[in-house]
Design brief:
By secondary structure, the protein is of the alpha+beta class. Among the domains are: about 5-50, no CATH class; about 115-185, His-Me finger endonucleases (His-Me finger endonuclease fold), CATH 3.40.1800. It is about 55% helix and about 10% strand. It contains 6 helices and 6 strands; from the N terminus they run E-E-E-E-H-H-H-H-E-E-H-H. The protein has helices spanning about 40-50, 55-90, 90-115, 120-125, 160-170, 170-185, and strands at about 5-10, 15-20, 25, 35-40, 145, 155. The strands form 3 sheets. A two-stranded antiparallel ribbon has the order 1-2. A two-stranded antiparallel ribbon has the order 3-4. A two-stranded antiparallel ribbon has the order 5-6. Helix 2 (about 55-90) runs antiparallel to helix 3 (about 90-115). The relative contact order is 0.05.
């Protein structure tokens, strides 16, 4: 087999890039062992195809869900039930395994939603003395206030202040409607 060249021109964007896994997907069907389209262009190509064929994609996913979904859900449920039984019987390894899964899910959620870690959340709470940054009350749980456009985290608030702030961000129209509502009931 021929050794792959050190660089390669993408067939789509025409840029010359190194033939590493970082730039080109491996494909044994191609002569040099890598695809002719770089990963960036391949991602764009896939996104465009999915947008053009949205109905086909949805139909395919529904069929796939129907075919293997029930069986897979049954297996997951059985596995979860076995885990619960092990935990109920005091199996320390099952408890540790479950806690690790919960911790991983929590970390993933924090990262996806707010681009932060649980440790950063607890650090922020400690810096605020576990008090709402607006009203100064110590709630049972502090919610993360963030800019919905930039997703930048601002501070930790109580649920009430976070909801009021959300209404204020909705704009003048919301304020006008809220004022009319209160006048109606006073």
């Amino acid at each position: 087999m021929n050794t792959p060249p050190e660089v390669k021109r993408c067939r789509r964007c025409k840029e010359v890039k190194p033939t590493t896994a970082e730039y080109f997907k491996a494909d044994n069907a191609c002569r040099d062992g890598t695809r002719n389209v770089c990963l960036v262009c391949l991602a764009k190509q896939n996104k465009e195809w999915h947008e053009r064929n949205a109905e086909h994609v949805v139909a395919y996913r529904r069929r796939r869900y129907d075919l293997i979904g029930a069986a897979q859900r049954g297996k997951q449920h059985e596995k979860y039930q076995r885990m619960l039984e092990r935990m109920a019987n005091g199996d320390e390894s099952a408890i540790a395994e479950h806690q690790a899964k919960v911790d991983a899910a929590t970390r993933s959620w924090f990262k996806r939603r707010y681009d932060m870690t649980p440790e950063e959340y607890f650090r922020m709470a400690a810096e605020q003395n576990n008090l709402c940054a607006i009203c100064g009350v110590e709630p049972k749980k502090l919610t993360i206030d963030h800019d919905h456009k930039t997703t930048k985290v601002r501070a930790l608030l109580c649920y009430r202040c976070n909801q009021l702030l959300r209404g204020l961000e909705a704009g003048e129209e919301w304020m006008r409607r809220a004022t009319e509502y209160l006048k109606r009931w006073s």
